[in-house]
Design a protein that fits this description.
The structure is a homodimer of 444-residue chains. By secondary structure, the first copy, chain A, is an alpha/beta fold. Helix content of chain A is 34%, strand content 24%. In chain A, the strands form two sheets. In chain A, strands 7, 8, 9, 10, 11, 12, 13, 14, 15, 16 and 17 form an eleven-stranded mixed β-sheet that branches.
């Protein structure tokens, strides 16, 4: 049978992984795809003579790749949202199916790209764009196809999870843990994208679009990173029965969609609390399936290549049952083309509801806790648990002050903002109140 | 667009769940399937006037269901391996796609049924047969399509997991925990199928067939249940850093496939050790993706219905891209038709390799531990950890004897059998040696 001929764009670690997986697992891939999958052309702006191209033709003309007749499907692994987006558009406009691992391109330009894909009747697949080797995209669009997704929550940035795990396991501060992540190759020299939550926001925008059948709304994702998390907060959270994780959360509410990325206290018995190091996990709550959790490697050459090649298998299956004579638009048979549903409004962060962890640095005087509790209760904020006169950690014992640590029950953020302003204004409060959101996944 | 017309066989809890999910989530299902999915006929030997059939025609003629022209796809939810198998054959031979949740039928007759399905060019889908709401079948055949699966391990019987969790959390014995499971509806009046591992063996046979592209080999699965697990063993295992879980394990080895279901010590930090109550989880190790874990509800009306309806969505997509004019056999485009690969031999249990937990009831005399250690070491069995003169639990302190508890490194079972015979013959050993397998998932 005629092989599926792949034009591979980019020659970095994921692309090298794709070449390796297609070669090493050629047998099983051909059986599952119905025909062999071979890379006929590789295009990269940078020559890498050390990489074995397994007989593929090499070119530095990246955007020209889609034009070749011996390319049935384009795999875009350049990354970023400039040249890569041109390539994606060009390939789709040429009527070629496209597979990409490019989360920035899909999160920012997914609506436009899918519009071209549907108009051309070809699939645009991006399983590798979220959570590496975990087949979460296919699970949302196929495995959970019978469900209205009510919410999802994911640890979708391995760098942040590695840093928080190191801080938690060894009491390190953020800078030390970041330096270790950089030494091990888990963080870039400029770590902003990962530690400030932008990468996770890209992925959450994609998950939310598929789960809630809405558009790709990267700009609407509320985004907060982990750079201000301290070992003290990790320790107090632990004493109250929580771990601090960097989560992406998307939830359908009567007011609209909540889509937010931020550090979050998670009950320490919850599976997400026990996802450590660079691993990723996504928990999806469907209205029929209930909780379903997916766990695996979120990055790395072979895991990401596994997802790219799974998409190529989908393209092969798609092409096998295409009926060109009828010119049928079967874009919706692809794993990733969300059917058009009404656009849901995104709820601003101060309209979101969650529990809150509060660390309130205050003078060690009688009555401070009661005063704080009163300010909360006047706004109908219930205290879930607290460390009164918490045994202070490290340098906090100087100057005769102690932290008051409180975890509240869920409350709208604007109510909490109002309460925090009042607490911050108390004369006994001697430093900035730290506030971290809490999520109990409906199990409180 | 013409709806996909479903003939539903059976009217038990899962069938009622299917009716409810198709009705409640009709909008999202139609968008993902490309057209509406409606139940036109329901057949059940038992009348259930209390169930809302949403306008479907009712009949007690179960096997005749497939013959109706207004049935595009048959959903078999009768269960068991007699009438249900006749129905499955009849429907497939009539050229109707079939969706089933029947693990016994697929595990015992899957090869023959898939042969008919392929000959007829129609899909036979059974996502709901394994692990309820967890889309594990689709993940093996699609999401991980690029991988050679090296091994998989699953908690795939919720009843056994509930009982072991209760025994572990509250120190209950097997009988007490079983009675509680029965009271809560998690175990049948005759619990044999669940607690002796037969249900798990059905599911493992299905997972192994798909993961390793081989036949359905229920008869070759080594099967051991949980009825002989004691609170003492759970407690000693805990002191050594393990939880006891009932696992299905399938592994490709140079000698062939290991497929076995038995109680297993799992390191307590491992995610599988933290899957509790009736929940299920399956861990798949692919040679590209690495470890991928799926977690969710393994049973229940709506979760199982979620899987059945996901398969119906697949049937709708399949029918949308079928090309009847060419009569193409596109069985392989279905989610569950494993392409023919050479049959792998199944390794007998005494050829399998694992670590072992041993509890050796012995007289409290000097030198017993050394004698046991010598017998092991003569057979090149290494001790991983041990409780010498373990602090005895409950009644074991009578008669001046103590248990010696040992966890070994992995060793072929026939070597362990030989060692155990020698240990059992020691004059100081005063009772039957308990042996439970240990799995560290390559992380030792």
């Amino acid at each position: 049978m005629q092989p599926l001929r792949v034009g591979l764009c980019g020659l970095g670690t994921v692309a090298q992984g794709v070449l390796e997986v297609l070669s090493r697992n050629a047998g099983v891939i051909a059986r599952r795809a119905g025909r062999p999958i071979v890379v006929t052309r590789v295009a990269s702006r940078r020559l890498r003579p050390e990489v074995d191209l397994h007989g593929a033709e090499f070119s530095t003309d990246v955007v020209g790749l889609a034009g070749h007749a011996d390319v049935d499907v384009v795999v875009e692994l350049i990354g970023g949202a400039d040249v890569a987006v041109d390539l994606l558009r060009t390939a789709l406009e040429a009527g070629k199916p496209v597979v990409t691992a490019n989360k920035a391109a899909v999160a920012r330009h997914g609506d436009g790209l899918l519009r071209i894909a549907r108009a051309q009747g070809v699939p645009l697949l991006f399983e590798a764009a979220v959570a590496g080797g975990i087949p979460i995209i296919g699970s949302l669009t196929r495995g959970l196809a019978a469900n209205e997704v009510e919410w999802l929550a994911g640890i979708i940035n391995g760098t942040s999870n590695f840093i928080l795990t190191a801080m938690s396991d060894r009491g390190e501060d953020f800078g030390t843990a970041l330096a270790e992540a950089q030494r091990l190759g888990y963080a870039e020299a400029d770590p902003t994208f990962d530690v400030e939550g932008i990468d996770a926001a890209h992925k959450l925008a994609i998950l939310a679009a598929l789960a809630f059948e809405t558009g790709f709304r990267f700009d609407a994702v509320y985004t907060e990173g982990i750079s201000r998390i301290t070992p003290e907060d990790i320790e107090y959270a632990r004493r109250l029965g929580y771990r601090i994780k960097h989560l992406g959360l998307a939830r359908r509410t009567p007011a609209g969609l909540e889509v937010r990325v931020h550090p979050t206290l998670v009950p320490d018995t919850h599976l997400l609390a026990n996802v450590n190091g660079v691993m990723n996990a996504v928990l999806v709550h469907g209205n029929a399936a209930g909780d379903v959790l997916y766990y695996g490697a979120g990055a790395g050459s072979l895991p990401t290549a596994s997802a790219v090649v799974a998409d190529l298998v989908e393209v092969a299956r798609w092409s096998a049952c295409r009926n060109p004579a009828e010119g049928a638009d079967i874009g919706d048979a692809s794993a990733s083309a969300p059917p058009a549903a009404p656009e849901l409004p995104v709820v601003a962060i101060d309209g979101c509801t969650s529990g809150y962890y509060l660390r309130i640095p205050s003078l060690d005087r009688p009555g401070v806790f009661a005063r704080v509790a009163t300010l909360l209760s006047e706004r109908e904020i219930s205290i879930e648990s607290a460390l009164q006169r918490a045994q202070a950690i490290h340098a906090e014992t100087r100057d005769a002050w102690v932290p008051i640590v409180i975890v509240t029950q869920p409350v709208p953020e604007r109510v909490m903002n109002d309460a925090l302003a009042a607490v911050q204004a108390l004369p006994e409060v001697v430093g900035e109140v730290v506030r971290i959101r809490v999520e109990d996944f409906g199990n409180a």
